[in-house]
Design goal:
CATH class of the largest domain: Alpha Beta
Radius of gyration: 19 Å
CATH topology of the largest domain: Rossmann fold
Low-confidence stretches: none
Number of strands: 15
Largest sheet: 7 strands, parallel
Structural class: alpha/beta
Mean pLDDT: 95
Number of helices: 11
CATH superfamily of the largest domain: NAD(P)-binding Rossmann-like Domain
Helix content: 40-55%
Shape: globular
Strand content: 15-25%
């Protein structure tokens, strides 16, 4: 199948593009290479994909013409998005890159003759402060990121209704691993521990619990959703570990893996943070046979190896 992956130069997108190619799909990537974090990391991913024969078009979904890159595409994974919870981030960027970009991509796909499957990567952030419920639970996002992802979900489902193609929404939970965004908890803690630098910890966040899910496990679920698309069409599916771990325990694991203590520097509490996430994956088990197998420690070891081989500021 000819498959397009938006956000292919990013963390999850680059892993997904490789896995799809390994599964025999003809993969094209699309990425704007925005400067939200060090572009050299994204360029490294583009080069890695190119070495596998996967071309990545540099296009802005919210502004550029999209017709040529969609020609002949039979499946789309839409991962491109504006991430983050930082209050300094321009809120307009979330609307532009999460809502408007999704609308323009769907505009370009209206009446597409070959498209059969549109898979949208959403987030546990749509649930709100607690993300432990099944997919039909009421949504109450507390961050601008979560609110724009909820809007994008609704747009995807509405636009698929009159089309020949169908959609599937996949809500991802705290994905970590090699190539992860450098401002996230685990890579930042790994760098601080290695360098003997203080790790900035938001007040109260040491007690927050997350459904930390290794990227390889999530990607396996994403690929299976396309392979079993007739069963997934029209569905919303959680993809994450069915357990939760506190931030404090993750930091202890990082110190164990690095073999050095981690010094903590307290910062004021951050608005928009979730208190607890734990993926309810009964539907994913039933439809996809989804069952994450990578332990948190093993995943951190793999990410530590990557951080040690990669220059990150």
């Amino acid at each position: 199948m000819r498959v397009l992956v938006t956000g292919a130069a990013g963390f999850i997108g680059s892993h997904l593009a490789e896995a799809l190619a390994d599964a025999g799909h003809d993969v094209t990537g699309l990425d704007a290479l925005t400067g939200y974090y060090d572009r050299s990391l994204k360029r490294n991913n583009v080069d890695r994909l190119a070495a596998r024969g996967i071309e990545t078009a540099r296009l802005d979904l919210a502004a550029d013409p999209l017709g040529p890159v969609l020609d002949g595409i039979e499946g789309v994974y839409h991962l491109a998005a504006q991430p983050g919870l930082s209050p300094e981030t321009d809120r307009r960027a979330f609307v532009r890159n999460n809502v408007r970009a999704t609308e323009r991509l769907l505009d370009a796909l209206a009446g597409h003759p070959q498209l059969r499957a549109f898979l949208f990567a959403s987030s546990s952030s749509v649930y709100g402060r607690e993300a432990t419920a099944p997919e039909d639970a009421a949504l109450a996002p507390v961050s601008v990121y979560g609110r724009t992802k909820r809007r994008a979900e609704a747009i995807v489902r509405a636009r698929a209704e009159p089309e020949r193609w169908d959609s599937c929404v996949l809500r991802l939970f705290s994905v970590y691993g090699p190539r992860e965004r450098p401002d996230k908890l685990i890579p930042k803690a790994l760098r601080c521990a290695r360098r003997g630098q203080a790790f900035p910890l938001f007040e109260g966040s040491e007690h927050h619990r997350r459904s930390f899910t290794y990227v390889g496990d999530v990607v396996e679920g994403l690929v299976t959703a396309l392979d079993r698309f007739p069963r997934c069409a029209g569905e919303v599916i959680n993809l994450g570990a069915p357990s939760s771990t506190s931030t404090l325990r993750v930091l202890e694991r990082v110190a164990e893996v690095v073999g050095r203590p981690l010094c903590i520097e307290r910062r004021p509490a951050r608005p928009g943070d979730q208190q607890c996430t734990r993926a309810c994956i009964e539907k994913a088990r039933r439809l996809l046979g989804f069952a994450p197998t990578t332990s948190l420690r093993d995943g951190i070891v793999r990410e530590a190896d990557w951080v040690g081989r990669t220059r990150i500021g």
